[in-house]
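Re: weekly structure request thread

Next one in the queue (262 aa):
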Amino acid sequence: MPAAHRLLWTCLTMLAAGAGAQAADLTVQQVSVALAKASPSAPVDFARRDLSYLDLSELDFKRADLTGANLYGTDLSRANLAGVRLAGAKLDHALIIGANFAGADLHDASVLDAVAFSTLEILPGEAPNFAGANLSGARIIARLSRSNMSGANLAHLHMGAPLNRTIPPTRNALSGCNLTNASLAGADLAGIDLAFADLTGADLSHADLTRADLAHANLTGADLTGTDLTDADLDETVLRRARGLTQAKGIDTARHHETTIR
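Done, posted below.
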């Protein structure tokens, strides 16, 4: 484990000790051995197991079943979780630096205060991959800037902050993400940093984008039917061929300068 990752993981472990956290159901060795014997056609069943605070970095989970698993504080840095079942799983405070969640099922999962970068700097090589993943109904507070979420299902995602609470972009952001053809229908993205995000062809119908930063974002061909853009930042946002723009809410209150609509 790199030194920066180890420092973060050690801090989390200390927090767990201070909170009196119980030991995980399995050891790192037991998980590693089980995965070594598994295959994508015969995956391991870790459903509802407690794997909290384990260092599972760089492991290949081979489409394992982690439905409802407790991965609180677990180090999943650069792990291959492609196609893994993580529905309802708890990934709060987990390290997901460079983790591959492509095609994984994370619907209704909790990803609160997960760590996606080893420093405050956003490094593209460390951004987790969620291409084609199912994150519908998930609850997320994480800086996922520059992540690949193309074709992902983010419908009814809970990521926004209420008016009486501010979550800084260093903790919670989707800036620069690849969200092409992603579904964000009904998603709560209030106040979220989506600057420079590629939302080409994305479904944002009935999403809450109040106070969201969409500066320089590309929404070409996106569906904005019923989308709430009240007080959103549309500075130099590309809205070319966007559908449902006339049915979007709060468009008259959105801040915009040199926004491209046609």
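Helices lie at 3-18, 28-37. The chain has two domains: 1-120, 149-262.
Next request, please.
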